[in-house]
């Protein structure tokens, strides 16, 4: 019986990891793939390795919180398998609405529902987690706002990330030992910028592993007949990798429309900021959504760049009738390599005619799913374990 239950749990874990790989790989590697800097297969390979590294190191802290911190008793194998199915339902419902699922939040909701049903909920831990869920979007927004208003325009003026025709590096076989050399059109600037892009992509993959591997692995750890943490991490990583090599090929082309609408340089700022926030919170054991930090950083950078025509004094005194806020300022790729207008002055025509960076209705839909997803998983888990207490 235990072996059968464990087999079902492993299949559920693979399903969850597979879907995580499909969405997370697109977020981490969509911009570099779209810019032609890296191929989809190479991106999926790097994603798998660094997801494993993130899950194996920082992710263990999140696993401890999920398996032991949210409820006051150890998460049993049967309860863990049920939790995985609730996570899978959350992913499925989010896919129906076309919104990336906050997997970490859905996982916490399901385990919290178990705790409510059995009277074992650790209210202090849950309160701490929820407080970080409230603070994280605010942090991402304001960091993004500072970057968009003060940092991005200056960097955008000096740095251009372009992909030249032909390979970046080739092998010189004139000597006994082949040596790497520049491609026919490669410059030092292109080599350095490409290296930075790849490092940032790997960093985001590491962050995705730290936050997402525990969601697929933790419910199977502990209890009679449960898996060892190392084995659970490997299974979850392999499932995420399969998702990266298969269904993520499509998401890397679109990245849901968010990152693909802004220049690669702006996307890199988003990736670094969101990854750092997610990694730090994972380090202290807080289950957090990488998508949450990513979306709010995008909004923050767009807002910060758009408000440059308004000075701080004008914003505080509301005396900004003569200044136009340009919601599409950061999408004006014609301005790459050109100086931005000083703060408080009107933007050039190329910026005024740019399309909007984000659709407010889309942002509302994302935020709604961050609330609805965990709520649904909590209610379903609570009802299930109240009806079937023997599985808890």
UniProtKB/TrEMBL annotation:
Q: Which residues form a coiled coil?
A: none
The record gives the membrane topology as: Multi-pass membrane protein
Task: Reply yes or no: does the keyword Transmembrane apply.
Answer: yes
Q: Give its localization.
A: Membrane
The UniProt keyword set, sorted, is: Membrane, Phosphate transport, Transmembrane, Transmembrane helix, Transport
> Any idea which GO molecular function terms this record carries?
phosphate transmembrane transporter activity
Would you name any one GO CC term? membrane
- Please explain the role this protein plays, according to its UniProt record: Potential transporter for phosphate.
Name listed for the protein in its UniProt record: Phosphate transporter
UniProt organism field: Natronoglomus mannanivorans
